[in-house]
Write a structure and sequence with these properties.
single chain, about 170 residues, mainly beta, 4-stranded antiparallel sheet
Amino acid sequence: PDSPKLLIDTQDVVGECPTWLSEERALYWTDIGGKKLHRLDPASGKLDSWNMPQQLGSFAFREKGGLVCAFEDGFGFYDLTTHHVDWIADPEEGNAENRLNDGRAAPDGAFWAGSMNYKREKKGYLYRLGADLKVERRGGPVAVPGDGRGPHGQEPRQRAGADHREDRPAG
């Protein structure tokens, strides 16, 4: 078998949320610490990068274009062309100890994201941003484990597929 090879070296601080967009045949991901969003076209090797106004923990593609995002201080819609953010809500307004982190689109059009405490204390919560833009707290408090293992040392579960074409938020 072939060994893995580096396609592009973006020097990310914390590269996460790899998401394949089938119609573009491109891979998107966020560099949380670097406050960037990247897009790679593997066929051409072309890299596009966007500077984000805050740390971007996760995102999903919208049916209307652009992204729904879990920024460090709340949810927002991001326009890839104008670079404009339409802020939706900050579910933890005034809480400088936490930021929004991992998130995914759900089949019902909602976007789910969890918050994490910077000190990894059990102070994070799970939020659901509905297609109606209503934010509901649905779980917590939780902590983000340091090594990806569960609370009893078990191996992490496999994640769902990264192509969210069929389950993009409707907003």
